[in-house]
Each structure stands twice: as C-alpha cells, then as structure tokens.
Q: What sequence folds into this?
C-alpha cells in the first residue's frame, strides 16, 4: 500500500504543477488556460532536443528548457492574451481561444518532431531502491523532492518578495494595484511566464518515465483539469491537494480494481465533486464559470 501511495504521490505532484499554473493565470487574469497541458508537452520535447539529441548535460538542459518555456509564456501573454484582456473581449471567447492555442501547439509539435513517440535516458536511474520490503524507483523520490523544493520557492516568491506582492495585488484588486503604480500588464506577463515555466518542469520530469507524444497533453489535460476543479480553482493549496488526490486515487484504483478504467474513475470523481462540492475542496466561489 505504501509503495502504491508513493507512486501515486509522484504522479499527483506532476498533475499539481500545471494545475498550479492554471490557478496562477486565473488569479492574475480571470482566465482558464486550456493550453497548459500542451505547453507541458512542448517543454518535454524541448528537453528531448537539448538533452537527448544535442547531448547538453542534464542540469543545463533543464534550466535552459525552463528559461525557453518561460520566454514562450511571456511572448504569448503579450501577443495573445493581454491584447484581448485590454480590449475587454468576452472571457468565454478568450477561453475558447486557449483551446485553439492548444490545437496549434499540438500541431506545431507534430510538424517539428513528427508523431513518432520519443523518449530519452532516465538520469535518475532504472534500478529500484529497497527500504525493507518497500521498493521505490529513484525517479519517484526525485520528482517528489524537486516539486517540493519548487513549491517552497514559489511560496517564498509570492509572499516574501515585492514582485510577488505586486502579482497578488493585481490578482485581488487590479484597479487599486494600477492606482498604486503597479503595471498590470507586466505582472500578468510575468504570471504567464511563471505558469509556462512550471508546466515545463512537469513535462521535463514526465518525459524520462513516459513516452513523449504530441497527444500527451490531451491525456494529461483531463487529469490536470480534474485536479484544478477538485482542489478549488484559484487556490494554490487546492491545486496541490487536488493533484495528489487524483494521482493517488487513480493508482489505487488501477491496482485494486482495473487499470483499463482508471481514466473513467478520475472523471467519475470529478463529476461527484462538481455535483456535491462544485467549489472544490478549498471552496472556490467562481468555478461555475467553467
């Protein structure tokens, strides 16, 4: 049971990262970004190119991928999202636009990297570690540790720095933040940059243990959406708890009932939450917009 829970925890924190990015964007702009999981896939492919093809060492390739994807997020916010927000485009239209962006990214990956599944070397090791009767793959521990460190850094940035305070002020009261001299467009762009970089970290960590494919984002997207809505849209704690709940529950369902229907189970869990607690665990009061 403990081994299953650890494996589910590793999956769950990977769902939590893009879910956290979605919550960041929601808080900053009031928009739900359906392209987040395809940005995750794009990050995995960029890492594959740098580390698997160009043979750049893992850590520099990791940091370079995160930087490139952060730049992609910043670019998209300036040329795609913020102009529509500035023009007061209907939020539902902008949301549909993120679906179009998702399709564009998926086809861009097909054109550049083809539909052939890809995988690169697992630098964390392929030999299980034994702790008594418990066998754990090294990547499980590394994933949990890296994500935990990233979440701590993010919390410090948002609550312990001037820029993080400015971002939270724009999320809470955009007009008041603007009157205080904060450039809302810059804060929104930085939020998109962080959200995309966080998704890239998830794509990098997934790639060595799962085969990369252009459709990976659609599979991940459903579970990320479940994590967001179960945890509570807009809640950072909710994104983490929702991701872990989805990851652990699907692993337990696969082990004790059937792996063929684990996606059905995740959707069933999401439906139950939407019926009986539509605001999620942390009771967001805006989830009806989805």
A:
């Amino acid at each position: 049971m403990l081994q299953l829970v650890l494996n589910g925890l590793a999956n769950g924190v990977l769902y939590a990262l893009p879910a956290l990015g979605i919550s960041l964007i929601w808080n900053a702009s009031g928009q739900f970004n359906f392209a987040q999981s395809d940005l995750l896939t794009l990050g995995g492919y960029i890492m594959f190119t740098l580390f698997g093809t160009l043979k750049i060492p893992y850590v520099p390739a990791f940091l370079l991928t995160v930087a490139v994807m952060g730049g992609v997020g910043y670019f998209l916010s300036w040329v795609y999202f913020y102009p529509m927000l500035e023009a007061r485009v209907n939020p539902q239209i902008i949301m549909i636009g993120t679906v179009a962006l998702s399709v564009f990214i998926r086809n861009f990956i097909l054109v550049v990297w083809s539909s052939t599944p890809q995988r690169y070397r697992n630098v964390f090791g392929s030999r299980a570690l034994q702790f008594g009767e418990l066998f754990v793959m090294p990547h499980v521990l590394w994933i949990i540790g890296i994500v935990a460190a990233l979440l701590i850094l993010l919390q410090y940035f948002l609550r312990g720095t001037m820029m993080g305070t400015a971002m939270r002020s724009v999320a809470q009261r955009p007009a008041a933040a603007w009157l205080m001299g904060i450039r809302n467009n810059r804060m929104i762009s930085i939020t998109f940059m962080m959200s995309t970089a966080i998704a890239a970290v998830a794509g990098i960590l997934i790639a060595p243990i799962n085969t990369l494919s252009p459709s990976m984002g659609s599979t991940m997207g459903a579970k990320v959406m479940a994590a967001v809505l179960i945890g509570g849209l807009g809640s950072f704690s909710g994104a983490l708890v929702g991701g872990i709940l989805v990851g652990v529950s699907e692993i337990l369902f696969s082990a004790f009932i059937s792996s063929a229907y684990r996606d059905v189970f995740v959707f069933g869990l999401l439906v139950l939450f939407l019926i009986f607690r539509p605001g999620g665990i942390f009771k967001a009061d805006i989830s009806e917009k989805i």
Observations:
- Residues 286-290 have pLDDT under 50 and may be disordered.
- The beta strands are 129-131, 134-136.
- DSSP finds eleven helices and two strands in the chain.
- Residues 155 and 253 are 32 Å apart (CA to CA).
